[in-house]
Amino acid sequence: MSLFEALVDDAGLFPPTALPMADALRRHRDDLVAGSPVLTHRFLCPASRLTELRAHLEQAGFPGAGPLAEPIRLGLILDTPEVPPLDGLTVELVEVPGGRAVALDIPARQFVEVTAAQLPIEPPPGVGLKIRCGGLTAAAFPTPRELGAFITHCAERGIPFKATAGLHNAVRHFHPGLGTDRHGFLNLVLGVCAAVEGHDPVPVLSTTDVGELVRLAQAVPDGTAERARRLLVSYGSCSTSTPIDDLTALGLIDAPPAATGYGTGADAGGRTARAATGPATAGTAADPATARAATDPATREEPPTR
To answer: Taking the model in full, what pTM does it have?
Structure first.
């Protein structure tokens, strides 16, 4: 398994992008057609908006003829007291707030949201955890040590987890609007790799050295990548193009054959994830201009909550 395969869940309904349902579904449809392996092609939806979702599915082409004949694959964010009637919708996972698992009568994986302050925590067998890596204020961002403690906890116990919030860019960087450092999703992935090998993830979570992160990603053994991605199931991003753009800019995945319109419901696609040990595009790791997209928040929507 590639280190970046099926990494990003589609959280287009959530801030800061917060697309209207119709636009979010059109973008998701376009991503399915493009078929980037970096995306899980799983659509995250609050339980409270399932009725609205159903009303837009047929209009957006789910299901239908051609490549979208399969039902939409959902990740359900449980913001209601219980799971509403699904009426045939396919739910693959349920994200549960409040730090406690709930009884589910559907065959979906459950991920319970916790904070590093709640550790140690032992979820029931078959239940994973969820961690927020950011939010609307600087206080919502866990420190590298707190995030590292969570990752180590999961790695030592074999607890799969999901991440969300604030992971728009690949590399850790300072965000002036928030007045704090934002975690990078590449730092997160490599921190998990360090943890499954028995190392402290905090140094790699803390670094802003783009070249070093690229070198580390290129050197991840296949076995480590596989164990790391069994642990880190995915993370939710309100942008489905930015993670692909950043990985492309860093030379960690192949460039798309042609760009499509961003911000219009059609994100760029067609990327083929390169294996974690594959060579980077020449010069990308050391060239600040090439790698700027992975660290520069100037063109990003803010503040990040998903």
So the answer is: 0.85
